[in-house]
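ok so for the tutorial part 2 we go from a plain amino acid sequence to predicted structure tokens. step 1 is just haveing the sequence, like this:
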Amino acid sequence: ILPLITGLRQAVMVDYGGHGSELQAHL
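step 2 — the prediction. this is what the tokens look like for a chain of 27 residues:
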């Protein structure tokens, strides 16, 4: 599960750029 979350968080950073940090807080 952990690798999946890590990959998802990285994907969010790439997709949303600066907004990725805000979305990561909810993960």
